[in-house]
Design brief:
Blueprint: H1 2-20, E1 25-32, E2 38-45, E3 51-57, E4 74-80, E5 86-92, E6 98-105, E7 111-117, E8 134-140, E9 146-152, E10 158-165, E11 171-177, E12 194-200, E13 206-212, E14 218-225, E15 231-237, E16 254-260, E17 266-272, E18 278-285, E19 291-297, E20 314-320, E21 326-332, E22 338-345, E23 351-357, E24 378-384, E25 390-396, E26 402-409, E27 415-421, E28 438-445, E29 458-460, E30 467-470, E31 479-486, E32 493-497, E33 501-504, E34 512-522, E35 527-528, E36 535-538, E37 555-557, E38 564-569, E39 574-579, E40 585-591, E41 601-606, E42 613-621, E43 624-632
Antiparallel strand pairs: 1-28, 2-3, 3-4, 4-5, 6-7, 7-8, 8-9, 10-11, 11-12, 12-13, 14-15, 15-16, 16-17, 18-19, 19-20, 20-21, 22-23, 23-24, 24-25, 26-27, 27-28, 29-30, 30-33, 31-32, 31-34, 34-35, 34-36, 37-38, 38-41, 39-40, 39-42, 42-43
């Protein structure tokens, strides 16, 4: 039994690994837009299981947009349910261009919106602009009603990129700035453009700001609060050693990471790049306290890059430890342009990457571009394990331009992807385009969704040490996996069955068990269903009657006994087990009769250590068992 049990565990673990390496299917897609340009930069699952989408829109009232434009581009937010059905939309803006890049759900169930604004006081904006572009944040409640707004900037251009709610209920804002000391900016510029972060309280009132840069250009892409209460900043840098930058440039542009304390004071910085140009710098803090940063790279092997380029540019990710020291890097691409725009660590510790790809089947890409001319990109997703090894890739798109700009892992372990699309009904897209570009959302589901969960669970032939489990046959199932345990007691014992039933043996008497089953629809690839609901049963107490369909004859003497008992047995080898009245095993011996007693014989068992009381002696030969009552004194 033990070797089979171990094999079963290894086999099921193999199934789980295989499932993790299988690309998902599209569950549904949805398009939202008006009669002009509508481009989303944020998509995330909300507390109610639906989704919030945010970006900017040039459309008036048309298509899915219910409010007129305030001027130029406006912030445009949509709330959809778990099936992709729109619940409401809302627009915020002034008389000029206002572009939203980030939406986060807040602790109160509402949302914080962040972007940049070229507008003055008008429309939804209540503060004058400081320069040509300012950071602009808008707080709304759970139904999309504005609560307050706030703007931050200097005399130059301040372009917002990222935000997050902080542990104290306030907000951290990040972007890049060309302003000197002016307006809300308290430090002079280091170069043409610097990282600039602003910390506010829960009401949007500025608490402090900080600038980081070198002598050339820096573009901040992401800012997050870290586990220690500080902040991690990531983006692109074209500077050499200068200002706040402590490492020389590797090429034209590099990833640049800055770690600060809770007050925005720099603790360390790190640069990663190759001999050519790297851009972007999307980032996520990892469960081990380190960081993953990603973007696109033109470089070959050299500098911090350990793999050659697949095409013009590739996805490139770098894993760092908590101190910003590189642990590994990985590149993914095809024969043409592949640009990574968003990444996230997944629940099991791997990584999900999303962006746009112009490549056909080549390099790391396993599916063709929907545009056979390769002149427009598709959504391209790459899933890796915790060490950056590719597990699968997937393409979604239509005949036009389709570009992932945001992603989120959902509570079901699958993914939601959002981006811009100019495709009509074609390829993976099921709705026509409203305007030049629309929001396009794709929700995935595991391929296991087509493998049905067993039903009609029934436990029969329940005895003191065995029971038979059964269920209805599942069409397409090659086999079944069964798990069982004493109710509430870990771990599960996992075994398999090629048919729709399984006999369990070696159970404890008078004990409650629980079990469930799942379908194995493709044993080779590991395609399986989820586990069924659990079924409970209780084994019977020990009894004097035969415990099986066969019959053996056993005599125990003396009875009652004090030191030893003698058992008269047939000639076959047997297992002798002694149970107390609670069904607990107190003695077990495997015995054989001496040579020359082919017709049966007698064996002796020492019971001198057993406390006085009543016991059951079970003799089992070739799966045929018999209980005999025994008294010890």
């Amino acid at each position: 039994m033990k070797p089979f049990f171990l094999f079963s565990i290894v086999l099921i673990w193999g199934f789980q690994c295989s499932i993790a390496q299988t690309a998902p299917l599209k569950k549904w897609d949805a398009r939202f837009g008006g009669n002009q340009d509508d481009i989303p930069f944020s998509v995330l699952q909300t507390n109610d299981g639906g989704y919030i989408l945010g970006g900017y829109s040039h459309s008036g009232i048309s298509g899915d947009k219910t409010q007129a434009s305030q001027g130029g581009y406006d912030y445009w937010i949509l709330k959809i349910d778990s099936h992709g059905v729109k619940l409401w939309d809302v627009r915020f803006g002034g008389n000029n261009d206002d572009r939203l890049y980030s939406v986060q759900q807040t602790d109160d169930g509402g949302y914080i919106l962040g972007g940049y604004s070229n507008s003055g006081i008008n429309g939804d904006k209540t503060q004058e602009k400081r320069g040509s572009a300012d950071y602009w944040i808008v707080k709304i409640d759970s139904t999309g009603i504005k609560q307050w707004d706030a703007a931050f900037g200097g005399s130059g251009s301040d372009y917002f990129s990222s935000l997050g709610q902080t542990n104290d209920g306030g907000y951290i804002l990040g972007g890049y700035s060309s302003s000197g000391i002016s307006g809300d900016k308290t430090q002079s510029s280091q170069g043409s453009s610097d990282f600039w972060i602003v910390k506010t309280d829960a009401n949007g009132t500025k608490q402090w700001d900080a600038r980081f840069g070198g002598s050339d250009i820096e573009y901040l892409h992401s800012v997050q609060q870290t586990a220690d209460g500080g902040y991690i900043l990531s983006g692109s840098s074209y500077s050499g050693i200068s200002g706040d930058k402590s490492q020389a440039s590797q090429g034209g542009g590099d990833y640049w990471i800055v770690k600060t304390d809770a007050n925005g004071i720099k603790q360390w910085d790190a640069r990663f790049g190759g001999s050519d140009t790297e851009g972007m710098g999307c980032l996520d803090q990892t469960v081990d306290g380190g960081y993953i940063v990603g973007g696109w790279s033109y470089s070959g092997i050299g500098g911090d890059r350990t793999e050659s380029n697949q095409g013009s540019d590739d996805y490139w990710i770098v894993k760092m430890n908590v101190d910003g020291v590189k642990q590994w890097d990985a590149r993914f691409g095809g024969e043409s342009f592949d640009v990574l725009n968003s990444l996230q660590q997944t629940f099991e510790g791997g990584y999900i990457l999303g962006g746009e790809s112009f490549s056909g089947i080549s390099g790391d890409k396993t599916e063709p571009n929907w545009d056979v001319s390769l002149s427009t990109p598709d959504y391209w997703i790459v899933k890796t394990d915790a060490n950056g090894v590719k597990e699968w890739d997937k393409r979604f798109g239509g005949s036009g331009r389709d570009e992932i700009l945001a992603l989120d892992q959902t509570a079901d372990g699958e993914y939601i992807f959002g981006g811009r699309s100019s495709s009509g009904i074609s390829g993976d897209k099921t709705q026509d385009c409203w305007g030049d570009d629309d929001y396009w959302i794709v929700k995935t589901e595991s391929k296991a969704a087509g493998c049905k969960i067993p039903f009609g669970l029934l436990t029969s032939n329940i005895k003191s040490a065995s029971a038979t489990l059964g269920w209805k046959n599942v069409t397409g199932a090659e086999a079944y996996s069964v798990r069982y345990r004493k109710t509430g007691m870990n771990p599960w014992t996992i075994t398999s069955s090629p048919i729709r039933s399984k006999k369990l043996t070696g159970l404890s008497a008078n004990t409650e068990y629980e079990w469930s089953v799942k379908s194995l629809c493709n044993v080779q690839t590991g395609l399986s269903s989820d586990w069924s609901a659990t079924q409970n049963f209780t084994t019977k107490p020990l009894r004097l009657e035969d415990d099986s369909e066969g019959e053996i004859f056993v005599e125990v003497f003396p009875n009652p006994a004090s030191t030893t008992i003698h058992l008269q047995l047939p000639s076959t080898p047997a297992t002798i087990t002694v149970f107390n009245l609670l069904g607990e095993k107190v003695r077990e011996e495997k015995v054989s009769l001496p040579a020359g007693q082919a017709g049966g014989g007698e064996i002796t068992m020492d019971v001198s250590e057993l406390p006085a009381g009543l016991y059951f002696v079970r003799t089992e030969e070739a799966m045929v068992g018999k209980f005999v009552k025994l008294a010890c004194r």
